[in-house]
Amino acid sequence: MAADQRPKADTLALRQRLISSSCRLFFPEDPVKIVRAQGQYMYDEQGAEYIDCISNVAHVGHCHPLVVRAAHEQNQVLNTNSRYLHDNIVDYAQRLSETLPEQLCVFYFLNSGWGNSSSKKGT
């Protein structure tokens, strides 16, 4: 992680050069540069506070201590994707399946609830 924050304009210029245009920004005319988050709030480079209703954190918030601790503990053991065989993914799927109807017993784990930002409902 960068120790110092660069100016918003510099970050935007680097993003436009290095990040695919298919990864769209919210408010592209004047994007918000979020520099940190805690609980349900996010903060921009000027310190303005925003309630985060869309960043996949509605359940526990940003930086929840239990989630941070669990991620830290897991990262000390293994940090990889689901394409390798590992007990944790099937253990979790099994626990999850016990809470759902039998018709919902096959899982596909992703890192985000967001699909292609350009896709439309029903397509």
From TrEMBL:
Superkingdom of the source species: Eukaryota
Co-factor(s): pyridoxal 5'-phosphate
This protein's UniProt keywords: Pyridoxal phosphate
GO MF annotation terms: pyridoxal phosphate binding; transaminase activity
Pfam families per record: Aminotran_3
Cellular component annotations (GO), alphabetically ordered: mitochondrial matrix
Keyword Metal-binding tagged: no
Signal peptide: none
InterPro entries the UniProt entry points to: Aminotrans_3, PyrdxlP-dep_Trfase, PyrdxlP-dep_Trfase_major, PyrdxlP-dep_Trfase_small
Oxidoreductase in keyword set: no
Similarity field: Belongs to the class-III pyridoxal-phosphate-dependent aminotransferase family.
Name of this chain's protein: 5-phosphohydroxy-L-lysine phospho-lyase
Origin species: Pongo abelii
The organism's taxonomic lineage, starting at the top: Eukaryota, Metazoa, Chordata, Craniata, Vertebrata
Name of the coding gene: PHYKPL
